[in-house]
Amino acid sequence: MARKPARADDLAPIRPETPRRARIEIEFDEPAILGALFGQFDANLVQIENRLGVYIGARGNRIQIEGPEESVARARDVLKAMHQRLLKGQELDTGAVESLIVMSSEPTLEGIITGNDAPQVMIRTRKKTIVPRSATQIDYMKALAAKDIIFALGPAGTGKTYVAVAQAVSQLITGSVQRLILSRPAVEAGERLGFLPGDMKEKVDPYLRPLYDALYDCMPPEQVERRIASGEIEIAPIAFMRGRTLADAFVILDEAQNTTPAQMKMFLTRFGQNSRMVVCGDPRQVDIPGGDSMSGLADAVKRLEGVDGISVVRFGSADVVRHPIVGRIVEAYEGKS
Question: Are 129 and 151 within one domain?
């Protein structure tokens, strides 16, 4: 049967539908915080404009947003979320604005900000209040508050360790736990450091510095030092966990991809009454000497995912909350376009 000749209309390229444009105006009632809302030289507004492809004009306490309909709606939600953060006395830096822009595409943003659709998710410490900066951090914070053992997997910059330390500090302050134990395997990241001088603490401190940094960011330095001296806070290599039962403690294992299966089993079986364990690591960044040993993190997740009381939270490059370029670097190394 002869094929019917194609008409010229059938061969015409399909043009993408032009997005509908919109213009809205929002008004804020607290003029005292508008300077912080807009940022120095309107830097926050410029950041939203560049990321969402909208135009934002400000006059007094009124802001007009113009652009593609969906982008205008997202920009409105971001500005409202920024305003709510300032009303609560929370920080509003470039990273916070970027995280709200990323989260504006998630249906959970409105629930986090207003509490209308979901309970507020946040962690309060002596120095600051931490709110989720990505959609996955919402699930992570909920798991930290409810599960016994949490595995947090994903690339650097997603807040795995920082959020866990913040939750641990919060529970220590409120008395939910009596001790905070932070641990890491003392494995060199692709370079040989040789013999380090000093006593045992001085030898292992370089490996544990990221844990100290997170701790000092959540508590005043004098309190950190006092609690370390009293034993309420302990920072030690994973080898120091052998033979112990960690009751009434919040225990965090960082860089867990560099444990062997035997080390991981040893660590997990230290779990005691009224305790919580968080195991953080990036399965793609294994630095175990020799390269032949299976990572204890991958082995544990394979065995334990789905077990009652255990949660596995997976972060991706979209969850990176450092500078936006870090997320793009992660995507490039993961082979994503």
Answer: yes
